[in-house]
Specification:
By secondary structure, the protein is α/β, with parallel strands linked by helices. It has helices at 2-10, 32-38, 57-69, 85-90, 106-118, 134-146; strands spanning 26-27, 41-42, 45-51, 73-77, 98-101, 122-128, 150-156.
Amino acid sequence: MQGLLEQLSRRQLIWQGSAVRQNIAGWPSGYPEFDQALGGWPAQGLVALQSLPAIGELRLVLPLLGLLQQQGLLCLINPPQQLQAEPLLAAGLQLHKILLLSQLTGADGLWAAEQVLRSGLFKAVLLWQPCLSQVAGRRLQLAAEQQQALLIHFTTVISSVAA
């Protein structure tokens, strides 16, 4: 995995918060500490966030989604649990501008994400998927960049601690 990340980084195909360059167009996160450390969210492309599933990871991006929804639609693909309207409304999101696709297979989720991005109607796609191959990640990154959209890929961490 480390070799893959190094290869992608050398080819400037990934964005890393630790390598923030000045004057990069992006979106504020809604969290001053995050913006100071990482420079906010990139304006377009692919962002991968790794966390345990269904621990409130969506809260991290709610301020960003509010900004992006002013410019286009949002799509959420395979969230790990049923979404509740109240937190989304409290964050200022308009539910009629959110497309929710759930219970898709891995291949169908990737296909849907690419089609949604290529439509040009969506400013952000959030995809919960255990992993992305290099080919799938690159296809989605290109689709997002071509339409000036942002794809946020939530990937899970498998805990080695027995319950």
